[in-house]
Amino acid sequence: MKFSIACFLAISATLTYVAFANNDSAPMSTEAKHWRHFSQPDEGRIKVEAVGNFRFPGTYYILEGTGLKYFYGICGGSGEQGDFGGGPPRMFSIIRIVDGEKKHIKIDASRLKLASVPDFELLEGDRVIANEIIF
Q1: Distances in Å between the alpha carbon of 25 and those of 12, 31, 133?
Q2: Could you tell me which of 105, 109, 131, 133 has the C-alpha nearest to residue 51?
Q3: What beta strand segments (E) does 8-125 contain?
């Protein structure tokens, strides 16, 4: 429940920022503004890919130092895949290239909800996979 509230607050803050940051006069949906903000490469941003059970999977350009908890919110939380129409993932898998070798990092999503657990910082080129909950 607390994780859902945190995701909701992160998404709301992000969408509010994007809504006020857009200076174009043409009307855009909130989702389009949100995507536009994170789809543009810029200085100080890293490229990270969201795959799997995300509401908005795709490639994002996020600020350096962004953690997995916040990235999950940027991607809209869980999608419609998995049991019961898409609950939060039980596990995140991160594919990261380190010294030319592919590393697979598994992160228990239930532990990330705890305030005492530090966020997992994402790096340039990370591929984040939100695993679906399967019986």
Answers
A1: 22, 16, 42
A2: 131
A3: 45-52, 58-63, 91-98, 101-108
Furthest C-alpha separation in the chain:
48
Q: Which residues, in sequence order, are bridge partners of residue 129?
A: 51, 93
Q: What pLDDT shows up at residue 47? A: 95
Sign, Cα dihedral of 59, 62, 7, 34: negative
Q: Where are the beta strands (DSSP E) in 43-90?
A: 45-52, 58-63
- Six token digits for residue 70: 């916040």
Q: Look at residue 84 and tell me whether its pLDDT is greater than 50.
A: no
**125: closest CA among 82, 94, 88?**
94
Query: Domains along the chain?
Result: 2-130 (3.10.560.10)
- CB of 127 within 8 A of CB of 47? no
Given a cut of 60, is residue 75 above it in pLDDT? yes
